[in-house]
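User: Can you model how 1,3-dihydroxyacetonephosphate sits in this protein?
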Amino acid sequence: MSIYNLADVLNPAARNGYAVAAFNIVNFQTAQAIVQSAEAVHSPLILQTSVSTVKAIGIEPLIHFLRGLAESAAVPVAIHLDHCPDIDLALRCAELGWSSVMVDLSKRPYEENLRETARVVSYCHGLGVSVEGELGAILGVEDHIVVSERDASLADPVLSIEYCRETKIDAFAPAIGTAHGLYKGVPKVEFDLLRTIAASVACPTVVHGGTGLSDCAFRRCIKNGAAKINISTAVKIAWCQGMLQYLQDHSEENNPLKSDAAAMKAVAETAIAHMKLFGSENKA
Ligand code: 13P
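Assistant: Here's the modeled complex, given as structure tokens:
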């Protein structure tokens, strides 16, 4: 199956009331486990890479194996760059094979965020690459982007309409009270704000900070318009804990293929649970 861009996988989700999970992968094995999971439940999929993963693996080796996995997958797979504050890097990823990029200019003044995001969209659309943009500031740590409680802010619904219309982004991530990383208490998700924004912008909406949301919160996000939900920390926990458990249980085992297989199984279980919960099963 060929590689899909973000608009291709999200527009049907937004129309039909389900969400596509976007999983942050950290290596070949996490990507492969997640692609196999999507195939097992016949779900469309977004493989997401953070900037630190791009830098750790290297832009060309990373896109080479991601495109290989996506092209041979039996389900639609989009390859997405997550939270990139560096416009030059985002454009390079778009040129080298990512099918969508998120430019995170949310720390810049609103006018500049709008103008620069529009410039990225215009270039990326010429390549057939989709763009995700963000307004407000999502609490927590994602990659090297740190937003403290003091600096976190919700998206403004009026500016959201203008931002989406003027930039022509393909997916919109409004800050709605979710947070990156593990929640310290019960998150206060602004479902009404999500519904208002999702109903008034033309493109599908995205919820960040999926790890730790309850099943009920996920369902309410989707009911109120979320078409893409990001899951990163849960993938990393599954990988590390799956590996740790295996090595504790088999302390004499020195075959990395076996410990990798155990970690991949844990990642696959996490991925499948999210895809089923988001309603994307059998939507490939
Ligand atoms: P979590 O790490 O909380 O799952 O957030 C993922 C995310 O939103 C990536 O952009």
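A couple of observations from the model: The radius of gyration is 18 Å. Residues 164 and 202 are 7 Å apart (CA to CA).
User: Helpful, thanks.
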